[in-house]
Amino acid sequence: MAIPRLRHAVRTLFEVPAALRLLSRACSTFHAFTDVLRLPKRQMTKLVFPLQELERQLTPDSRLDLHVKIFDPSLEDISKAEAVFTATSRNRISYLSSAVRLDHAPDLPSPEVCFIGRSNVGKSSLIKALFSLAPEVEVRVSKKPGHTKKMNFFKVGKYFTLVDMPGYGYRAPEDFVDMVETYLKERRNLMRTFLLVDSVVGIQKTDSIAIEMCEEFALPYVMVLTKIDKSSKGHLLKQVLQIQKFVDRETQGCFPQLFPVSSVTYSGIHLLRCFIANITGNLKTDGL
Ligand code: GDP
After folding, report:
1. If you measure from the C-alpha of residue 115 to the centroid of ligand 1, how many angstroms do you get, rounded to a whole number?
2. Does ligand 1 have an atom closer than 6 angstroms to the CB of 167?
């Protein structure tokens, strides 16, 4: 009699933490859009369209300063785009190779997008969040001082290639700038550059390196604001308005709509996936 009771107690002991882990994972992250669609409307809007949520805080006049609906896909489109980022036996998503020079980069016919930003901006976290539906993808990070900084190529099925560019900073060596510059200038299938800016601190001096490169080469690029979960609504709104003003006044090639994201809460991640699917020509809908 005592043995089955003991067995039950031991089983319960193992089941409780597992259940708690599952619950906390389900609450803290919304990797899949089907989970997001189950949320109450207000919470869902906040998670999927963080810029629209911020816009609600503005007076009607200053709403004009935020471009929130230039890219405004339906929930159905966002749901469709998710298939592009979901690893299946027919859609293999994997790390492909690394390169320190453009002539070592893989020669692929598919469209390419690249992610660029200063060290610590949250680039690897963002790429991991975008690839959370392909959990076996290893996003490599080489942060140790002295390690060679490389461009890392990821193949997303037959759809596109994603390139993780090395993070830049004060001590970016000259050959690193040459590598990034050559890539941006000469990569023929590069469709869009995603330039990451930390939403907590806004555009920093080092961010200008990448902004100037994109402007000089007349590249189409998009500003992604990272770590939005870290600030109060007021602080975030202030930063977003400042960056929006900069984009409107000082840039030519930057997409007018900003993409705020959090790799912790997944806010903005589904919309960004949809945008990438769209600009790489993998989301054929009339609405966009
Ligand atoms: P990278 O150097 O640009 O690749 O930056 P990482 O992705 O390694 O992130 C740098 C630091 O910021 C790490 O401690 C991350 O955990 C943290 N981080 C990255 N993204 C987010 C985010 O969206 N929210 C919060 N709160 N922290 C983040």
Report:
1. 14
2. yes
**Which pTM was predicted?**
0.88
Q: Give CA–CA dist 157/122, Å, rounded.
A: 24
- Cα 165 from Cα 269, distance rounded (Å): 19
Token pair 């990438």 is found at 276
| CATH code for the domain defined by 39-280 | 3.40.50.300
Instruction: Express each pLDDT in 101-123 by its tens digit.
Output: 898 999 999 999 999 999 899 99
**Nearest alpha carbon, ligand 1 atom 18:** 122
Indicate the helix (H) or strand (E) that contains 163.
Answer: strand 160-164
Q: Give, for ligand 1, the residue of 114, 120, 125 to mutate: max count of ligand atoms closer than 8 Å to Cβ.
A: 125
Q: How many CA atoms lie within 13 A of 217 on its CB side?
A: 20
Q: What DSSP designation does 82 have?
A: G
Closest protein CA for atom 24 of ligand 1: 227
Count Cβ atoms below 10 Å from residue 148 Cβ, excluding itself. 11
